[in-house]
Each structure stands twice: as C-alpha cells, then as structure tokens.
Amino acid sequence: MSKINNFSVIDYKNNMFADCMTTQKYSENKSLMRQPTERTCMCCRLKMTKHKLIRITKYGASIELDIKHSKIGRGCYVCPTKKCTDLMISKKTLNRVYKCDVESCVYDKIVSQIIANLD
Ligand SMILES: [Zn+2]
Questions:
Q1: 29, 41, 69, 73: least CB-packed within 10 angstroms?
Q2: How many angstroms is it from 75 CA to the middle of ligand 1?
Q3: Ligand 1 centre distance from Cα of residue 38 (Å)
Q4: How far is the CA of 50 from the centre of ligand 1 (A)?
C-alpha cells in the first residue's frame, strides 16, 4: 500500500516537473519572439520604435507631453520633427485622436514643449 502511495507521489512530482519545463520553454519562446515595441506617428503614420517618438497623453481633461513615457492616460505618438508637429497643428490631429475639441493653446503648449526637448 505504501509502495503504491510512493509511486503516485513520484508520478505527481514528475508531472509538476514536466509542467515547469513546459512553462519555461513557453516563456523562452515568448522572449525570443519579442519584437521592439513599435508605435505609429499619428501625423505621418510612420512606424517606429516607441522611444524614437514623442508621447502625448490624455488623462481626464488634461493633455500633456509625456517625455519619459511613464504617465498614465491614453497615449498617442508623434515624430519629434517640425513636419509632424506642424501637421498636428494644421490638421488638429489631437481632436481626431481624442475625439474631442482640443484648444489651440493646448497645441501651442505641447508643440513648444516638443521643440524645447529637441536637440
Ligand atoms: Zn510623424
């Protein structure tokens, strides 16, 4: 009786071990497949790794520049170029992205902050 019990314990342990191995292999595969996170510029639609783009975030009613990509809220991305910031103002891209009226002073503030953060 005790032998049977021992067997079943070993079986159980082996199964656990097999489960661990499967989980480990799965996470290894996942990390191999991981691509650098790409985001699309909301103005020119170019895809880039996200640290090359400038993040803007909307949380509640306030729309702000998110230099460190760390603020909460709904984020959108724009190239750090004059071409794209000009497009953002002329096409009022933030209105479209956030589906609301964004005042021109908000655009002015964000664009001047973007320009201040360019090299
Ligand atoms: Zn762009």
A1: 29
A2: 15
A3: 13
A4: 12
Residue with tokens 């103002």: 89
**CA dihedral of 49, 51, 53, 57, whole degrees rounded to 10:** 120
pLDDT, residue 20, reads 47
Q: How far is the CA of 31 from the centre of ligand 1 (A)?
A: 29
Segment 33-39 shows an average pLDDT of: 82
Q: Are 7 and 13 in contact (CB under 8 A)?
A: no
Q: Would you list the DSSP string of 16-51?
A: HHHHHHHHHHHHHHHHHHPPPPEEEBTTT--EEEGG
Q: How far apart are CA 92 and CA 78, in angstroms?
A: 13
- pTM, full prediction: 0.70
Does the 38-117 domain belong in CATH 3.30.1230.10?
A: yes
Rounded to the nearest angstrom, the distance between the alpha carbon of 49 and the centre of ligand 1 is 12
Please give the distance, rounded to the nearest whole angstrom, from the Cα atom of residue 55 to the centre of ligand 1.
12
SS3 call for 65: strand
Give the residue extent of every domain in the chain: 1-34, 38-117
